[in-house]
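Exercise 7.
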Amino acid sequence: RGAGRMFVVDHGGGTLIPSFQLDEVFDLDERVAPAVQRLTEFGMSGWAVWQWFCAHNPWIDARPVDVIGSADLDTAVAGLVDA
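Solution. The predicted structure, written as tokens, is:
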């Protein structure tokens, strides 16, 4: 989290960790971490990053959360931060 490779959101007095950032044994998913890092470096808050992953993205015609592990995730990130 401190390195910007994972994001969390505060809600109702607690801290939420969106599970798509984690692998099957609850370690940081290295397929997601570079995208999160670029988005947080771009200045997006945790809520904004979560929204970005879950909303339809016109550069890839899909939701970024649905293309984790493919080159489409990099394309979606580049479309936002390089625009």
